[in-house]
Amino acid sequence: MSGNRHLEDEKSRLEAYMNAVNVFRDTLSDPCLEANAHRMAERLDSRIEASKRKHLKIRNVTIAFSAACAVLLFGVVRLRRGQEAVSGFIAYENTTGSVQQFSLPDGSSVILADGTSLSFIYKDGIRLAALDGSCYFDIAKDSLNPFVVSTKGVDIKVLGTSFSVNAPAHSPRLDVTLERGSVRLLDKHGAPLLRMLPNQRAVLDTESGDMSVEQVFATPLIQQQYSLVVLDNASVDEILSAVESVYGIKVKASGFDPSKRYRISFSRTEPLGNVLNVLELLTGGHYFSDNVTE
Amino acid sequence: MFLDRENFNEFCVGKYPGLIAYAKLFMRGMDSEWAEDVVQDVLFAVWRNRFFISGDPKRIHAYLMKSVYNRCLNYLEHNRSKAKNKEELAELLSFARAYYNPEEDPVIQALFDRDLRKAIDVSVEKLPSKQQEVFRLSYFEGKSHKEIADILGISVRTVDAHIYSALKSLRLSLQNF
């Protein structure tokens, strides 16, 4: 009897090996394997790059906060060792008069419009953000912990994507513009309202329950809305890394003083050449990018 | 070991085939895009924890396999309530727990690592010649069972049998690996 069970077990084990050999063979014979590997490495690379930049930025923002006392940062932040670093919540309120970009503890990047508040918490494996106002989210991919934005009784559920939410305080209206990825809108009982595709904008009236979806060009719309980049008390290196990430280019720089700190603001829609000119006037250095068209 | 990004990049590209194949093992017929996410998440965690990870390639491989294993089981467990055919998923889960755990089975560990193929190679050399030939064609050259049957002029069923016995001996010789 026990010998029989042993035999069954051995058979299953061999079946497991067989599955393993087969799946490995199928994978190796896939002609896209190498391309997929490099694509994954590239994405991983930009993810690492983004996480580094975000660490830098959050430091900048904190410095700006304490210096100007313009943005309140409060809440209970306890650091645990390991990956899920934060228990407790963090609240951000932007009263600076311009948009502010920074990152959340999970590595997601957000751009907060003026007069907007946002709080963030890890709860039961869910990244939960409560929003009052307008905010652009670029959510860090995490397959196990979904990200939920909650505003006016509507939940926006995502895994890794970028989108903008406008929920003006004194209006029942709410709109969501999706740039890439996909998001789900849920009502307060968790019932699905809508699944959005990139370049769609959903407009909801939370009082009447009316809802409409239109096709838009999401990226320019979002850029226009969150066009102002403000860097306060930033070194040239930090300014350049912001410029590079806004324009998606590399800047060669020389002749500046790396220890000095500046305040600079520019519109994301401004031509790159103008921004570099202002930077030259401000810091006395020389800045050059291959992508500048005169 | 990976203080250097380029170095890490190379490492990731090298590890990708084995890890993606291993993740797909848990995804039978399901969302294969998710396997990509798992591998990326695991490698990202390696980068973040790079100062705490041993430089021994064998131990790194074990760590990667275990991470993929954990994430995949987590994912299946997560999706259990939503799944359409719960029974099939439950079956896959218990099968995976019993037979795909890399910590408990050195063969599973070795099958997905190109570096450990040497170990497999050595064991394969000890097999009877027909078994050896069939197993080489299947595992190292990626031929399907049908193709092997055609090449060697034997039936598919015989190919299956040879591979089964080859894997059986492999299990014995890798036991103390």
| Overall residue-averaged pLDDT value of chain B | 84
> What is the CATH-assigned architecture of the largest domain in chain A?
Sandwich
Radius of gyration of chain B: 18 Å
SSE ordering of chain B? HHHHHHHHH
Q: What portion of the residues of chain B fall into strands of 2 or more residues?
A: under 5%
Structure overview:
The complex is a heterodimer of chains A (294) and B (177). Chain A has 294 residues and is of the alpha+beta class. Chain A is built from five helices and 20 strands. Residues 55-87 of chain A have low confidence and may be disordered. Chain B is an all-alpha fold. Chain B folds into two domains: 5-104; 117-174, Orthogonal Bundle (Arc Repressor Mutant, subunit A), CATH 1.10.10.10. Chain B is built from nine helices and no strands. In chain B, helix 1 packs antiparallel against helix 2 (33-48). Chain B is globular and about 50 Å long. Chain A binds chain B through residues 10, 12-21, 23-29, 33, 36-38, 40-41, 43-45, 47-48, 51, 83, 141-144, and chain B through 5, 9, 12-13, 16-18, 20-22, 24-25, 34, 36-41, 43-45, 47-48, 71, 74-75, 78, 95, 98-100, 105, 107-108, 111-112, 138-139, 142, 144, 163-164, 167-168, 170-171.
